[in-house]
Amino acid sequence: MRLDKFLCETVNLSRKEARDSVKKGLASVNGIKVTDFGYQVNETCDLVVFKDKPVSYEKYVYFILNKPAGYVSATNDPVDKTVIDLFESEGRKDLFPVGRLDKDTVGLLIITNDGDLSHHLTSPRHHVNKTYVADIDHPLSDNDIKTLCEGVELKGDGVTKPAKVNVIAPTRIELTICEGMYHQVKRMLKAVGNEVTSLKRISIGPVSLDDNLKEGEYRRLTEEEIKLLKE
Description:
Low-confidence stretches: none
Shape: elongated
Structural class: alpha+beta
Helix content: 10-25%
Oligomer: single chain
CATH superfamily of the largest domain: Pseudouridine synthase
CATH architecture of the largest domain: 2-Layer Sandwich
Radius of gyration: 22 Å
């Protein structure tokens, strides 16, 4: 990897900033000052120092975020704050959310730069379960639950795959789906004559939201969690 590209991806520099910094002698590789920004770096074993601080390279990074309300699930937005704004201190420009949560929905969102994992988790053919806790306007009838569990007709998208419903309280349920249609949970409840008043995602596949994370906080996924998601 070229040294300027290495610095762009590790210390959040633009390509011009990286090149200018290298030409000024601010970077060294394996103890030798390098002023050629096209110098080839082995990102897995070379020791790169920038402004007297060692810089390490990670090809892929994985975070679990407890998404707060008011943020959109996008990398940039001309109006609203995005979930990626919460990761500014990480100094990476290649992060993106895996799938999406509505602006007013909170809970588990995975942030990464691994496109293969994102495709695996969001592709309809992989049927990855996602569980939500929904507060609803009024209790579900037995027939409502039966309809949700069998699949409901959503205009423009057809019939959903069978869901799982767990009634926590009269107006609070857990709903597990394996698709990611637009506003799917809200539309499913509306299809049985109900309304979602608040929504929180608590799990994706085998990974659950960390109870220690407050809204807006995040942590790195563990190696075990990453392995489980990829499987």
